[in-house]
Fold this sequence. Notes:
By secondary structure, this protein is of the alpha+beta class. The protein is built from five helices and 19 strands. Helix content is 24%, strand content 29%.
Amino acid sequence: MAITYTRNDIIYRALRLCNAYAIGQTPDADTLLNAVTALRMMSKTLLAEGIPLVLVQEAVVYMVSGQAAYKLGTSGDHASLYKSTAGAAVCAATTLGADEALGQTALTVVSVSNINDGDHIGILLAGGTMQWTTVSGTPTGTTVTVAAALTGAASSGASVFAYTTLLTRPLRVRNPRLVATTGKETPIEIMERDAYFSTYDKSTIGTPTHVYYDLQKDPGVLYVSPVPNSSALRINLTIGIDISEFDDSTDTPDLPQEWYSPLCWLLASEIGPEHGVPLDRQGYLDGRADKVKAICKAWDKERGSSSFELSAG
Length: 313
């Protein structure tokens, strides 16, 4: 049976392990705030130690003909989640079902599946550029109304992409696949920084075969080589998103159940000195925390990487 606990459930148990408050009582605001700060700091240390407190998901980056670098983040270029943690598609890729003229706002598409009111939507124009605008109103039948009129004609069969939310900056990317207009995925390679900047002619235009991801503060930057020769191309990626902030008291980590107890023990070890835990008790907390951390690391290596999601409770 699945179990679920909130951020504060984790903190309260850690405080109880430190004998910082008794069952039936409620920690005061300062105690809770300090514990939240400790949890956030500790989670960053765990990331540095190789325990990946990240949400592993599938994402898509929409190419632009002639553009080599793509900013990935909430203020970046067009990129979104491709699938939810449950594996369901959360963006749309379809085609126009009829020719559309310059100035048109009501567009006929082959499918309106996963296209929603307010979504970002891109339409490949006959000239080869992708026009991005937003969906205006809920699609009906096979008709999607867009907020901005087409700035050029678009042909039947032209690519149409839609998504709801810009991608959060990834901590890492792996398993890149180039997606052709047919939807077929072809694996491409990830390069290291030195190899990318010293090897490739950045002006070469063609079909992308390599990517390099530069993790900036926000947004990150994905470099693509050769420079894409079509705005109908996409790159699908497996990404890791940092979700170790634990912002809200009701945030619920939908993580493997094996992680709940370790987080409590690790946090108790972290905050024990702040609460005057006796040395013998602190030694026990530290030892227990080290043990469960070692178990988690070993378990994670066998599993590949920890995939979980924070959602408002």
